[in-house]
Input
Amino acid sequence: MDGTIARPRPLLALFVRLLAAFALATMGMMVKLAGERGAHLVELIFWRQALTVLLLGAGLALTGRLAMLKTRRLGAQARRAFNGLFGMIFTYGAVLLLPLAEATTLGFTAPVFAVLIGMVLFGERIGPYRWSAVVMGFAGVLVVMQPFAGLHEGVTLAGIAVGLVAPFMVAVISHQLQDLNITENPWSIVFWFAALTTPVAALALPFVIAPHDPVTWALILGMGLVGAAAQMLLTTSLRFGSAAVILLMDYTALLWASFYGYYVFDRAAPASLWFGAPLIIGAGLLIAWRERQLARSRVHSGG
Output
């Protein structure tokens, strides 16, 4: 492959995205377990990024495709890497501070934040459909977290705040990725994000690294490997299908997060999650549907 858009294969894209959702939920479970066993957030981020550099670089080298890592916009890659590192801190922080299912559910608000960012930063006009989605999404957050009715076990206001900053950063980064994808290869974007942030995490590593038992090291290594695989699966899924089509598969991560929460952490998801999560997921699907409708109307109008 030369990095060009592959022939659309919707069923393959859905399957690969399904695997990506499973990998992301599994990575979250390993992050939480490793954190409970004493691994610091900075350690987890360092190994996640360092292993991505090694695996992706080695894989492309072995297949003779290192040229795919060339970039013409290192400054833009660096800005994306800075925001990505900031976002990763909050994404992992949410997993460490909140129960896994709740942290995963809050992550689904990224499309809602994307709509608000588009309005504030890019002057996009937001119609009744997308405004309804915004209201629906945040209503879902209130139903899940119940901040005014007494927080349920394992949920704190700090955790909620961190859990909402994480999808906000995902939305910010999505605008940067759309711009980078115009000129850059997807593999280049993934590689430079990891390559530029690994040294930054390494600088902080001596202040937080601690000895771990073999099980904790196995969790850290597994987290890095599964995280790198998830990144590659996400990128691959977009080669074979549009984001609007495969969005639904992302929400299956909640099923895996709930499974891990019950069987690994001995905590069943509260009833409020199953009432609020459909609102958040519905908001994301409504936004995806509306974006598709608007894109079609622009094509038909020649705009």
User: Anything to note?
Assistant: The chain has one domain: 10-301.
